[in-house]
Amino acid sequence: MITGNENLLQISELNKEYISVFEQHGLGNYFKPENLSKTGRFIRLNTLLTSNNINSEHFINKLNQSLSEKQEVKENDNETLHFSAMLPCGLRNPFKELTESYFEENKALFKDLNYMMEGNVNHELSYYPLLDSITDENELPDVIMASDINNFFHRPFIHRFIENDVFEAVEPFIPNHYLQKEGFADPNKHYTMYTANMLVMVVDKNKLGDRKMPKKWDDILQPEFENSIIMRGENDFFCNAVMLPFYKDHGFEAIKILANNIKSGMHPAEMVKLAGKEDDKGTAIYIMPYFFSKRIKDKNVEVVWPEDGAIASPVFLLVKKDKKEQHKELLNFLFSKKLAELLKQRHFPVIHPEIDHKDLPETVKWLGWDFLNNHYIGKLKEDIQETFMEVWNKK
């Protein structure tokens, strides 16, 4: 009998025909093979249904009605995920390769470690929303690495887990001043602020024409940049890491102007291919991570690190207080100089005190903890997206 505490992989293995039921409710994406083998092992049925406003009792009864008396849910399949990492695209592959190599070299230490390392973009619209419905800390990994201002900063998660001191910051050293001078570390010592994905402007000078080169973020709100900017996004979602700072500085009016000035949304890897090309899909200004901007070698393209700072989209750790000792070897590696050097090679700022940042300009634009703590971030993001899409859809 299905109770709702089963994970999605268990459900799919019990009866393959169940997947069509989930597809009818718009949940088919969670049952794709590549997702089932990863997050499907750890997402509970009740959490998925609650987060999608589906009546759990009615839905589960429907599944049980078609369950044969001979069919039983396999036991001991609810795995504990010890370490999950949802990383920026520019960091995911080398981070995973180095980390898995270290695990392999130290098998005795990590033979029982259950982990998952993925690109953040894969989970921004799938896993993160489920966090608002999780009520049991045992459903969360022991050590979580995540990117951007996501659902880990939303009130449901904060009320259930942050305010109840489930997580405690890891502080192996006095952090490098580069990010800390902007107050990057969590003053309440729950989130461990690890690094940041630095967002900059990339300008195609041919498409810019006789318009003035933007030097600050405010500059791209000028009317002459209407339909002249590309940022990370899709048809119905655009990057919160970009829009939140604009809201902080200028309110919803800036969001409306930005929506009018955005030409399209795409992945940074696509932007790299377009910048400097004659392609009509391209534009004058791209907002992308600094890592991706370094891949562009076209002489007609200029990378602009804004005078008021590159936007620091956070990459952070959440570590369960009562699991820190159990995972001390993992944490020692995550804060090792070896991993810090990898971050620097990928143009990510580092908190390790022995790493310099001579390759990065000094100015950093960070939202700040006062802003994060004094706003209902989840609701604010919804309002920003709604305001943006209202203008965007009229275009």
From TrEMBL:
It comes from the Bacteria. Pfam families: SBP_bac_6 (PF13343). InterPro entries: ScdA-like_N_sf (IPR038062). Keywords: Signal. This is ABC transporter substrate-binding protein.
